[in-house]
Specification:
The strands form two sheets. This protein has a seven-stranded mixed β-sheet with strand order 2-1-3-4-5-12-11, with helices on both faces. The protein has a six-stranded mixed β-sheet with strand order 7-6-8-9-10-13, with helices on both faces. It has two domains: 150 residues, Rossmann fold (3-Layer(aba) Sandwich); 146 residues, Rossmann fold (3-Layer(aba) Sandwich), CATH 3.40.50.2300. It is built from 13 helices and 13 strands. Helices cover 51% and strands 19% of the residues. The radius of gyration is 26 Å and the shape is elongated. The protein is an alpha/beta fold. It comes from [Clostridium] hylemonae DSM 15053. GO terms for molecular function: carbohydrate binding; metal ion binding. This is D-galactose/methyl-galactoside binding periplasmic protein MglB.
Length: 350
């Protein structure tokens, strides 16, 4: 009997251990499912707008964690403008079993490689800010894009310039020839938004009945320093013939403003300056009267939509009909104009 009791005790203990191990395994599986992992690969961390999207995404994640009562891990990797590095970062996210990968392409024409990797791994992918070509988006039905309408941005930027010219032609048309002499600061040549913003900003000015003359244009690669150098060159060559500086983004507009300040050409004595993005620095320049306006590119809303899509995909749910602005597999957040007329309202909302 004694040995039987020991045997029964052993069976009970073995059963208890089995239940404990099974329970631990279930808890581990539950913990795993309760965590959503999102990998974010950005083209360059020192880009003012992309930095704003990244920080807004982290804020959106905190709100989503409370809503879902789930832990959401976001890992942001900076490719430092190297497509090779970005490919490696995506490989790392895949090897670590991330649920969703968000990519701000270094080279939008190289998206097919990343889509193929994500498709093979069965991981949904969300591109943002730099839109892949349609053929690459069509490789897999779990590929999404979050961004804006570049044509709309260009048109609104041109409208800012046209409205300012019409309101005070004698102030802007300094030589009185009835034309707007301008210089154009362009983003990267491979970025579709740069080409489209440039084209439609000028088309809109012309559509408003204002003749234009391009004095110069140059690639500032979205950055302040190259734009500053370009503006210094143009000031030396054209001086007060420059009546407007049209910039594809606010960061390059900042470089232009710095060059104009150094040459005593800000305010009513200098050209008007306009940008796109609505960065904090850009808004401050509008307050100071050093920029006439910008086109707001709403980073917060783009970040929120990315997090929404990512969480639905991570839970094997279709985001269609559940994410604001999602049309098919594309999200395009509307822009709006910011000038001295509404700058106070915009700043108070931030």
């Amino acid at each position: 009997m004694k040995s039987l009791r020991f045997t029964m005790a052993g069976v009970c203990l073995a059963g208890l251990l089995t239940l404990t191990v099974a329970g631990c395994a279930q808890n581990a599986e539950r913990d795993k499912k309760d965590t959503i992992k999102i990998g974010v690969a950005i083209y360059r961390g020192d880009d003012a707008f992309i930095s704003s999207v990244s920080s807004s995404m982290e804020e959106a994640v905190k709100e989503k964690e409370e809503e879902l009562d789930r832990k959401i891990i976001v890992n942001i990797a900076d490719a430092k403008n190297s497509q090779g590095s970005q490919n490696d970062q995506v490989d790392d996210f895949i090897s670590k079993g991330y649920d969703v990968i968000c990519v701000n392409m270094v080279d939008r024409t190289a998206a097919a490689v990343i889509v193929d990797k994500a498709k093979e791994a069965g991981i949904p992918i969300i591109f943002f800010n730099r839109e892949p070509v349609e053929e690459d988006m069509g490789i897999w039905d779990q590929t999404y894009y979050v961004g804006t309408d570049a044509k709309e941005a260009g048109e609104l930027e041109g409208q800012i310039v046209a409205d300012a010219f019409k309101a005070a032609p004698e102030q802007i048309d300094k030589n009185g020839d009835g034309k707007l002499q301008y210089v154009m600061l362009e983003g990267e040549q491979v970025h579709q938004d740069s080409l489209i913003r440039t084209e439609y900003s000028v088309k809109t000015i012309l559509k408003e009945g204002i003749p234009t003359e391009k004095l110069a244009s140059g690639t500032g690669n979205w950055m302040r320093s190259p734009a500053y150098e370009l503006m210094q060159e143009w000031i030396k060559e054209y001086g007060d013939r420059i009546e407007a500086v049209i910039s594809n983004n606010d960061e390059m507009a900042m470089g232009a403003v710095e060059a104009l300040e150094e040459n005593g050409m800000t305010g009513s004595s200098g050209p008007i300056v306009v940008g796109i993005d609505g960065t904090r620095d850009g808004l401050e320049k509008i307050v100071k009267g050093e920029m006439i306006g910008t086109v707001m590119n709403v980073a917060q809303k783009q970040a929120e939509c990315m997090v929404e899509i990512a969480c639905y995909c991570a839970q094997d749910e279709n985001p269609k009909g559940q994410v604001e602005y999602l049309n098919g597999r594309y999200v395009r957040i509307p822009h709006y104009i910011v000038t001295a007329d509404n700058i106070d309202e915009v700043i108070n909302d931030k």
